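REQUEST FORM: STRUCTURE PREDICTION
Request ID: SP-0412
Submitted by: Lab K.M.
Chain count: 1
Length (residues): 143
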Amino acid sequence: MIVHILISVAFFLVLMYLSVNLLGLFVRGLFPQQELNRIKKEAPQFITIAGSDEKYIHQQKRTTVIALVLNIAFFCLLFRIWNIGVVAVVVVIMAGRLPDLLWDIKHGRRTEPRLMKRDFLYYASSFLPWLGLPVLYYSLYYF
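STATUS: Completed
RESULT:
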C-alpha cells in the first residue's frame, strides 16, 4: 500500500512536469506578440540578430503546431499505455496551470502569488492539480 502511494506520487510529479511544460510550449505560441514584446524589452539585440518580427512570429506558429501535435501524442500515449483516468489527471493538471500561465504571458514575468488577485480562479487553480493525485492513485490501482 505504501509503495503504491509512493509510486503514485512520483508518477504524479512526472506527469505534472511533462504536462505543464507541454502546455506552456503550446499556449505561449498562441500569443507570439506578447512574447515578442517581452523579448524586445529584455534583450533588444536579439531581435536585430534574429531578423525581422515576421520571422519570429512564423517560427512561433510552427512551434505551436509542433506543440499541439506533441500534446495530442502525449494524450494518446497515456491512454494507450494506461487508461482514461491518467489522461483525465493530465487534463486536470493542465487546467489548473492555465490561469497562472496566462498571467505569466500577460505580465511578462513568472507568476508571483502575492501579486495575483485572490479570487475563485486563484484558489481553484491552486487546488485543482492536487485533486489529480487521488484520481491518479485510483486510476493506476483500481480502475
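NOTES: The chain has a mean pLDDT of 82.
Reviewed by: T.R.
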